[in-house]
Every structure is written in structure tokens, then in C-alpha cells.
Serine/threonine protein kinase
Amino acid sequence: MIIGLEFELRNVMEHIIRLARQLNKEILIESRSPFDPVCPVNTPYPWQMLGCGNYAAVFSHPDHPEYVVKIYGRDEHGLLEEKKVYDRLGKHPGFSVCYHSEQRFLILKRIEGMTLYDCVHKGVKINESVIYDIDEAVGHARDKGLFPNDVHGKNVMISNNRGIIVDVSDFSRYETCRKWKDLRKAYFTIYKKTLYHFSIKIPYFVLNGVRIGYRYYRKLKISKKQGSK
């Protein structure tokens, strides 16, 4: 029974690897600006694009909905670093799992749910337990000698009522990042006292404005800090 299951899982993985290699050959991903997400020019049928990030785009295939293929559009040397991050994290409920890596792409466990960013947009309540789940995941990453950078509303997802960090591509970069600390603070000082109690939908253009404003705010804080030295 167990041997048969292992054989079946191996066949599934071999099939998704073949599909991912073909997708990698056919896909074209553009990087118009270093400050904007990468953007696929074409998505071969029947693949579906699930989202784009700073370095890569993520796709799913209808034959294997439990997996995603993450293809790098720029900074491809970061793919190896991301694979190492997943290896160090091991199996943890606060993160996905990396099953396979090759040139330009990773095969990951698919996490289905809604990002905190989309929760605020759609008026879906974010419970405190989700924030504590991310706190625990961040602590686990630090215990493994990693640096949990770039943890923000678009990289945190609620799946089965748990908080999960879905992008660890910057966890090997030794630098200070306040994004999660600032988001956590905003949750308890603003969100919990207002939007938590009301099902209010916030338009994307407003959320995008907040995101841009936060970026300039952090740059200003860093500039002032450096100028005071």
C-alpha cells in the first residue's frame, strides 16, 4: 500500500516536471522596471497564471492543481538561494514546500487562500490568530539562521484559517526589513480598531496608494536616520 502510494507520487512528480520544462521553454516573461513585478507576455494553454512578484511569475496546471510552478523572470541566481531557504525551513505550517528546482523554475506546494491585501480589499475579516501564525513563522525562519525580509500583505495568505508566508525569495538577504513589524503595528493600532468591526471594501487604488506612500515613508525615515549620523 505504502510502496504503491510512493510510486504514484513519483509518477505525478515526473509528469509535472515534464510539463514545467515545456512551460519554461514556451513562456516569455518581461521585466519592464526593477520596481514593478515581472509580467508574462504569454501563458500557454492550459496553464493559468496565479500571480506575479518582483522576480517571478507563478503558474498552475489543471492536471496538477496541488502544485505551482514558479518561473523567474529576472535575478535568476536568486532561484538557487530560494531553494536553499526552503531546504533550511523544512516542513513548517507557516510556509510552502519546494519539491523540485531546475534552471529558471521551482515546483512548489500550492497554497490556496486569500492574501491579507485582498482580504482588506474584499472586506474579509483578518483574525488575530493569523498575525500570531506569521509571528511564529518569522521566528522559525530566524531560528534557522534566515532573514525574513519582504513579509507584507501580498506575501501573507490566509489558508484554512492559518497565516502562511508564500514568498521566501528574500530570506537569505542579510538586511534589516521592517515591513512585517510595520504591518503588524498597523493591524493592532488601526485595522483592529476600525475595519475589523465593519465589512468595508477598500478599492485597490486606495491600497496601492497606501503601498506607494509607505515606500516613500520608509525611504524618508532611512534618509533622515543617515543624515543624523
In short: The radius of gyration is 19 Å.
